[in-house]
Automatic annotation (TrEMBL):
PANTHER family: GLYCEROL-3-PHOSPHATE DEHYDROGENASE (PTHR11985), GLYCEROL-3-PHOSPHATE DEHYDROGENASE, MITOCHONDRIAL (PTHR11985:SF15). Belongs to the FAD-dependent glycerol-3-phosphate dehydrogenase family. Keywords: FAD, Flavoprotein, Oxidoreductase. The keyword Flavoprotein applies. Its cofactor is FAD. Residues 431-505 form the Alpha-glycerophosphate oxidase C-terminal domain. Gene3D superfamilies: Alpha-glycerophosphate oxidase, cap domain, D-Amino Acid Oxidase, subunit A, domain 2, FAD/NAD(P)-binding domain. The keyword Oxidoreductase applies. This is FAD-dependent oxidoreductase. Residues 17-336 form the FAD dependent oxidoreductase domain. InterPro entries: DAO_C, DAO_C_sf, FAD-dep_OxRdtase, FAD/NAD-bd_sf, G3P_DH_FAD-dep.
Length: 570
């Protein structure tokens, strides 16, 4: 908590070149790019970093193969190049993975036509990944016996990429990078609105944890509030060329369905892409694509039935998956950028995730709409260019602000790890050696953990049963990762809450020790707060479900000729 407290103290103490409102992928990458190039930056986030859209993704880093159907080849080209650049820049984190897509009878395209499209996709992506291949139904069964091929007419396999850890961890590492470059970044600080003054922006902010208010001054204001960009623009009196419409997506985390490290892709009953994604000891299945009017969403029983129903139809399982198999649920909105004058009503399912940056040069204000993990480096560079055009000096314009540490640092880490036989301490149930995992998560900072383990081998022990997080990682998180609530660690800095059932966490003696490390005397209060929050979220979801059911029932009864207990025909 010391890091957060010291950064809050800095917020009101100077005039920043740029204040960024929002700590999702857009705000985090913008902060890292600006700070890395020498711009004085502050970043505030009203919840935790990556606490909304950026923690509810599929963990896929892909070039947008689905946009091939709408012939948006320029966007596909841009996203493929971005994907390739991320794979090269983060080789331990962003890794190529194969997608096996099964086509069933009656689908709108023949599998060989889609296979040809996969080749075009590969060529648009500069042939950076492994080549696509066509698969007969028998070949699909030979490669993935779990797939039900009884109605399959063929399929194809191609490559994209995925995040080895979770999406929120990837986002936080940009925040951590910005902090390393001297930025001021604080979670649980909300903007109450801003006003333009002759010498810049005055933004009123509030510490959500204490209620304390203060003023932050900056020459430029960037609105990177994700799904709430339009809401914050209303607070600051900004009119823009774009606005957001929202698509709700859910994923279910279930026990591992297949040992293969590939994504299984299908077309759901309504024609949309549907995935079975490896997630360490678990499998992630989804997603839905439902238009909603507000960014605050919950997973409904209908959403869950849709996902379970589609997966049970397409896989050969010993028994169908049901709600008892669900370990956790990811549910969030995709904010889709559309022209403010209209466009959100047409071809909703064809709207892309491409970002748009609206610039008000006169007011020195930027609004970032849309976006996705794949495109994050482009967002950072575009923001730097826009800020520079507004008169903000960029002292080190050529500095490379992203990517893993230099290879010589990695070699030194691995050399030290070998000398101390670190990998011999890897827990038996772990999915990979300790040295591989610590380097991917912490880079240069992993050297600190080696020192802790040398001094006390207990620091290499898994603290919470069923996870792959060590005692020394908790100590590191306390010092450097601004853990304010227990959920910040369990759900975003790690993926423990995704892969370990809540009841198993409750029974884990290591969870309380983790709380003691993170929160000291406040450990019990933070532990109780976490489980109270999960209970409240379930109650809210149930209330939303009941309200939707009542609304649907009243609509049916209101239709002419409808009778109680009988659905109106259409």
């Amino acid at each position: 908590m010391e890091l957060r407290s010291s950064n809050i103290d800095k917020l009101g103490g100077e005039v920043f070149d740029v204040l960024i409102v929002g700590g999702g992928i857009n705000g985090a990458s913008a902060a890292a790019a600006l700070a890395g190039k020498g711009v004085r930056v502050a970043l505030i986030e009203r919840g935790d970093f990556a606490g909304s859209t950026s923690m509810h993704s599929s963990n896929l880093v892909w070039g947008g193969i689905k946009y091939m159907e709408s012939r948006d080849f320029a966007l596909v080209r841009k996203l493929c190049r971005s994907r390739n650049h991320l794979i090269k820049s983060y080789p331990a984190t962003v890794q190529e993975i194969r997608f096996l897509t099964t086509i069933t009878q009656g689908f709108r395209y023949h599998p060989r036509y889609l296979w040809a499209g996969a080749w075009l996709y590969w060529l648009i992506g500069n042939g950076f990944t492994r080549i696509p291949r066509f698969l007969s139904p028998q070949a699909i069964s030979d490669n993935e016996a779990i797939i039900d091929t009884s109605s399959a007419v063929g399929g194809f396999e191609y490559s994209d990429a995925y995040l080895h850890d979770n999406d929120a961890r990837f986002v936080f590492n940009f925040v951590r990078g910005a902090l390393n470059y001297g930025a001021v970044a604080v979670n649980y600080v909300e903007s109450l609105g801003a006003q333009r003054e002759p010498d810049g922006w005055l933004t009123r902010v509030r510490d959500v944890m204490t209620g304390k208010e203060l003023a932050v001054r900056s020459r430029v204001l960037i609105n990177a509030a994700g799904p709430w960009v339009d809401e914050h623009n209303a607070l600051t009196g900004q009119s823009t060329n774009h606005r957001h419409v929202y698509s709700k997506g859910i994923h279910l985390i279930v026990p591992r369905l297949t040992d293969s490290q590939r994504v299984l892709a299908f077309f759901a009953d309504d024609g949309r892409l549907f995935f079975v994604i490896p997630m360490g000891p678990r499998t992630c299945i989804g997603t839905t694509d439902t238009r909603v009017e507000r960014p605050e969403v919950v997973a409904t029983e209908e959403d869950i039935r849709f996902v379970l129903g589609n997966i049970n139809k397409r896989l050969r399982l010993e028994r169908p998956l049901d709600q008892q198999d669900i370990i956790s649920i990811r549910c969030g909105v995709r904010p889709l950028a559309v022209k403010a004058a209209g466009g959100g009503e047409r071809d909703f399912l064809q709207l892309s995730r491409k970002h748009a940056i609206d610039i008000n040069r006169q007011d020195a204000h930027l609004s970032i709409f849309g976006g996705k993990l794949t495109d994050c480096l482009n967002v950072g560079e575009e923001v730097v260019e826009a800020v520079n055009r507004m008169g903000i000096e960029v002292p080190f314009p050529k500095h490379r602000w992203y990517g893993e540490p230099p290879d010589q640092v990695r070699r030194e880490f691995l050399h030290q790890a070998r000398l101390m036989r670190l990998d011999d301490l890897t827990a038996q149930a772990s999915s990979e050696p300790l040295s591989t995992r610590l380097w991917r998560r912490y880079g240069t900072h992993a050297l600190e953990m080696l020192e802790e383990i040398r001094e006390d081998p207990r620091q290499a022990e898994v603290l919470i049963e069923g996870t792959e997080y060590l005692r020394c990682e908790l100590h590191y998180a306390k010092r450097r990762e601004m853990i304010t609530r227990l959920e910040d660690f369990l759900r975003r800095r790690s993926k423990i809450a995704l892969v370990v059932h809540e009841e198993a966490m409750r029974r884990s003696p290591g969870l309380r020790e983790a709380c003691v490390i993170l929160f000291g005397d406040e450990a019990d209060a933070r532990l109780e707060e976490y489980f109270d929050t999960t209970r409240r979220e379930r109650s809210e979801a149930a209330a939303v479900e009941r309200a939707a059911t009542l609304d649907a029932a009243s609509t049916v009864l209101a239709e002419p000729g409808a009778e109680p207990g009988r659905q109106a025909s259409h």
